[in-house]
Amino acid sequence: MEYVKVARSGQVPEGVVRRFFVGEVEIAVARFGGEVFASANHCTHLACLLSAGKVTEDGLLCSCHGSVFDFATGEPLSPPATEPITVYPVREEDGEILVGGVTPP
Ligand code: FES
């Protein structure tokens, strides 16, 4: 699997979610408990930007209607979303965040 650099570690501090692009693909990158997670940036409910949401202890919160998605699996933990968001594997090395498996739509 190909990993591409998306950010410097310092760009995603603890408790923060930010938007980055891998080519044309928009992803949300969040840090919780020191670990970095990457996912699609559009909520599976009505496509709000998850990068405009919040990092919570339960998962990534979509601020539009309150669905929370598991950081690791992307599964929706609360309604109204019923479909998981795509999650991507992440490596953090030498102060850089690398995301794998992102392919153009
Ligand atoms: S768009 Fe995310 S919960 Fe509705």
TrEMBL record:
GO terms for molecular function: 2 iron, 2 sulfur cluster binding; metal ion binding; monooxygenase activity; oxidoreductase activity, acting on paired donors, with incorporation or reduction of molecular oxygen. Pfam families: Rieske. Residues 3-99 form the Rieske domain. InterPro entries: Rieske_2Fe-2S (IPR017941), Rieske_2Fe-2S_sf (IPR036922). Keywords: 2Fe-2S, Iron, Iron-sulfur, Metal-binding. The keyword Ribosomal protein does not apply. Gene3D superfamilies: Rieske [2Fe-2S] iron-sulphur domain (2.102.10.10). This is Non-heme iron oxygenase ferredoxin subunit.
